[in-house]
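User: I'm curious whether this sequence folds into something compact or stays loose and floppy. Could you predict its structure so I can see for myself?
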Amino acid sequence: PSNLEDQFKLRMMYLLNGQEDKAAAPIEGADADMQEVILAHFKALIAAKSPPGRDPALNANQQLEQIEALRNIIRARADLRVPKVVLCTAIESFGRYTPIEPAEFKAGEKNRVLLYIEVDNFKSETTPSGLYRTLLNLRVNVLTTSGQEVWTMTDSNIEDLARQQRRDFYLTIGELTIDRKLAPGDYVLKVEVEDVLAGKINSSVAKFKIVP
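Assistant: Here's the prediction. I'll summarize afterward.
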């Protein structure tokens, strides 16, 4: 039961032999995490089979349901990703924002910005009321190109509750004020996100310039 490769081979043989119930059956004595991943894979493979006379649309719906379940399981185990950090003037929704281009700000002025952050491969847990709960910590640093920290902020226990599993997840931070004391030059805004429920951390950056 503890050999992932052998369990996969055995269940693949069950599936090829038409024994779908055995292919998707619980693995007695197996680690719970391993079992969840294997069974989700085989439920997706079983759903992909389309017997003659089966409604193609219904079959496609069932495939999508099982593939999405598998995706959610694997995503929670994958490295946390912060694929996008953007300095903006306006944010409407996921993927809909107005970036500051070029990201340049006048020295000595009170420059205000919004920060758009996309997060992926996060973990959600189901609450007793049936909602999906995500919990994140956030740290934002402004660094010189040599790595010297000149400004920082933190935001802990950012909780999101949703009736459906989130597919597109983003954070909006701001308005933030770019420190008017920053000398002209190039800077890096580093965003570090921690997935509290999964114990995962990752970061990404956005670059900007202070001009005379």
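Summary: The longest strand covers residues 149-162. The longest helix spans residues 56-77.
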